[in-house]
């Protein structure tokens, strides 16, 4: 549902609302969460010192480690009995962290996801194939409730069991689907294996997120499924998916639902706030949460706020794609590289597929990066046998030539030299519906 009162309120009104909500939130955590009271006191501040929105930057960041230190319920701003739902993050970067919701928090989650699904193209009455994982992960249940709220017929298929997913897509004919982008490709391949083409695939909209992806990957998914694919972003610490979402008619950045989640972009190294347009770490404050509001949560996600006018009449700011996590950043011979930058180069080669894996190893003192990528089925048919052999392809062979080309293009665009290994289709790990780990770190601990 499009909520014009919220989504296109005049910017001045939005800023005033944010300040009011921010101050109320600061007061609540100051009164009720010892961790935050201490944070204010350390800075010699009280919530009354937040007179303008930029004043927020005087407070320190809340980090994942703070959640772990207060595991499981130490950051609650309400009595534990008022919690109606508990989720935990998947622990992409270590031990899981626990997040809690009151009834009002679940209602908020439902509202922002309903907004998101509407922006993605979802409408009342559509069949919604929800292939996000159900369980402790926020993805499945979050999108589920939002889909019901919008009035869609939600199919809670969850992740995995791809063949069964394909059967249900054939039988129920969903117009909209939600999953990770890597799993969307797996589903597309499985549909093709059963003889489908965009003409016979019913899906018109795909709402994809939970892991980084690129424009090139979007183009590939849209072409294979014959649909419009949009980005949904979120993290459990703030609420789950539905912190921001792209508009299907615009596809140019994801609207942050700023009436609830206040965004800042800060410098990766210094933590200083950066102006709109510059790339840095996204920091979010969940102003209207009851159970576990967080002030200045360091997401670790690298993005920027897109400056300038948008095409949808919304007053909220858009964020660009996530280039990666601050902690996913590879430093290759001194150059900062995000996996998605490598992906963007790989998908410019029609001979390659979008399935790739990056391995970090250490030879002597230096880190070595190898990018393994599966070739496309078509290309495999022309050079198959050579690829099946392990080891380096013979110099001068087609495969050798192509991997050199890929290596050069990566060097030219990203600025680093990596080893490129082409492998046969189906050789690399696939998403099972959850997040796909793109980087394998084989370096011994220093
Ligand atoms: P975990 O930290 O265990 O992965 P979550 O399941 O809450 O916990 O995942 C949140 C993280 O997933 C985000 O901080 C971000 O790194 C990633 N993510 C979520 N949505 C997107 C998206 N649309 N694009 C890129 N990354 C995303």
Mind explaining what this structure looks like?
α5 (103-119) packs across α6 (138-150), α8 packs parallel to α9 and α10 (339-346) crosses α12. 32% of the residues lie in helices and 23% in strands. By secondary structure, it is an alpha/beta fold. β6 (205-209), α9 (215-225) and β7 form a beta-alpha-beta unit. It is built from 12 helices and 21 strands. It has helices at 4-7, 11-32, 34-42, 64-69, 103-119, 138-150, 162-172, 181-193, 215-225, 339-346, 377-388, 398-414; strands spanning 85-88, 98-101, 127-130, 153-155, 176-179, 205-209, 228-235, 240-246, 254-256, 261-266, 280-286, 297-303, 305-306, 318-319, 324-325, 330-332, 335-337, 352-363, 366-375, 419-423, 439-441. It folds into 2 domains: 1-326, 3-Layer(aba) Sandwich (Rossmann fold), CATH 3.40.50.12780; 329-441, ANL, C-terminal domain (GMP Synthetase, Chain A, domain 3, 2-Layer Sandwich). The strands form 5 sheets. The chain has a 9-stranded mixed sheet. A 4-stranded antiparallel sheet has the order 10-11-12-15. A 4-stranded mixed sheet has the order 20-19-18-21. The longest helix has 22 residues, at 11-32. Adenosine-5'-diphosphate (ADP) binds next to β7 and β12.
């Amino acid at each position: 549902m499009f909520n014009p009162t919220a989504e296109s309120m005049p910017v001045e009104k939005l800023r005033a609302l944010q300040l009011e909500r921010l101050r109320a939130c600061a007061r609540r955590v100051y009164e009720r969460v010892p961790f935050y009271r201490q944070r204010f006191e350390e800075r010699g501040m009280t919530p009354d010192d937040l007179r303008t929105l930029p004043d927020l930057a005087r407070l320190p960041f809340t980090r994942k480690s703070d959640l772990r230190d207060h595991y499981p319920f130490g950051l609650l701003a309400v009595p534990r009995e008022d919690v109606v739902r508990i989720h935990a993050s998947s622990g992409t970067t270590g031990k899981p962290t626990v997040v809690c919701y009151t009834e009002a928090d679940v209602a908020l989650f439902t509202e922002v996801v309903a907004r998101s699904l509407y922006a993605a193209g979802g409408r009342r009455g559509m069949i919604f194939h929800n292939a996000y994982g159900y369980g402790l992960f926020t993805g499945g249940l979050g999108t589920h409730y939002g889909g019901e709220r919008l009035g869609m017929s939600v199919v809670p298929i969850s992740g995995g069991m791809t063949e069964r997913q394909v059967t249900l897509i054939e039988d129920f004919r969903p117009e909209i689907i939600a999953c990770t982008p890597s799993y969307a490709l797996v589903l597309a391949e499985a549909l093709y294996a059963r003889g489908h083409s965009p003409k016979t695939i019913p899906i018109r909209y795909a709402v994809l997120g939970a892991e980084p992806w690129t424009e090139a990957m979007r183009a590939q998914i849209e072409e294979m499924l014959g649909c419009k694919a949009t980005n949904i972003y979120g993290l459990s610490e703030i609420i789950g998916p539905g912190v921001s979402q792209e508009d299907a008619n615009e596809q140019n950045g994801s609207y942050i639902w700023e009436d609830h989640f206040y965004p800042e972009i800060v410098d990766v190294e210094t933590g200083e706030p950066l102006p709109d347009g510059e790339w840095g770490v996204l920091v979010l404050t969940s102003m209207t949460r009851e159970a576990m509001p967080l002030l200045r949560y360091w997401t670790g996600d690298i993005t920027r706020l897109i400056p300038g006018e948008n095409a949808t009449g919304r007053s909220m700011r858009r964020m660009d794609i996530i280039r990666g996590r601050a902690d996913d950043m590879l430093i290759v011979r001194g150059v900062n590289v995000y996996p998605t930058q490598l992906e963007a180069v790989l998908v410019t080669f029609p001979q390659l597929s979008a399935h790739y894996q990056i391995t970090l190893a250490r030879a002597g003192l230096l880190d070595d990066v190898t990018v393994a990528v599966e070739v496309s089925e078509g290309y495999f048919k022309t050079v198959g046998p050579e690829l099946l052999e392990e080891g380096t392809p013979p110099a001068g062979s087609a495969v050798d030539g192509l991997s050199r080309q890929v290596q050069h293009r990566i060097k030219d665009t990203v600025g680093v030299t990596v080893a490129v290994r082409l492998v046969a289709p189906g050789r690399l790990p696939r998403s099972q519906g959850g997040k796909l780990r793109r980087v394998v770190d084989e370096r011994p601990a220093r």
